[in-house]
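hey m, so remember when u said the tokens were messed up on ur end? i reran from scratch. heres the input so u can diff it against urs
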Amino acid sequence: MSSSLISSITVRDQLIGAGFYLTDSSTLNHVCWAVDGKKTVLFEEPNDPSSKTNMQPAVLSAIVVLSKQGFFLTRDANWRGPSEIIPHLHDVKASCLGVAARVNPFRDDFSALLVHARTLQASAASHEEALLVGFVHDNSIKFQHVLFQWAGVDTEEPDDASVPLDKWPVHNDIATLELERMKGSYCAVPIPAYNIANHLIHPATYRRELQGALVEIHFTLSHCAFKNKDTFTADVHTLQVLRAPHTVSSIVKHCLPSSFERPSPSATCSYVQGKAMSSSKKT
């Protein structure tokens, strides 16, 4: 058993002991849905059931692999320009799918996680035939993070973790132009994601360091209903990489000259002869 797996199992044990590890069925007994503005939010069950004041949103936890499929947990959620669904860059939400790890106990944990997540959704559904979307997929869990926050003169106090847009990287020219228009009105909110060394991951390396990684993720859950569709949203509270993504380490590195050098006749001849010899062998 690798040291990283042993460390991950230790983290799992700590999460179970702390409570709100969604794989643990007892978590369902310590949370409740309550209205918060225009949506319902999953809260910690108060010690006094008759008291509904000063309730705290439940911060659930899980250990999952961040799938390479549907990975948009990046600095600009891969925004490529206006669309009917996402007309502006400031409307994007970074997102990803959490899937089961290949090793136990995390593989079996994920099966229980799906069961309990569906139970939470069903308990908040507006009616029996409502279409439940957003959080639980067939074999995955969707998480999201709001990347940009309004910072105009009429805004509430901005998030302590927000940063000015002139320090925020985006990946294409369209997003760069849109970012310029947003300056003065919006600020960026970094994903609270930490690498194995417990350092905050830089926005420019979100994909490289998170896609395919085994992570400890903490999140809150909310729900809103419109017509016949109930949408559930799991917002990332914080996440920690437990095992880095698998990378290809056997890349051949070529030592190239600093200036152009035309191949010598002997080198060209050897190459041509080599092809001729290969052809003769096939015949």
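this time it looks ok to me. The two ends are 51 Å apart (CA to CA). if urs says something different then somethings off w ur setup not the seq
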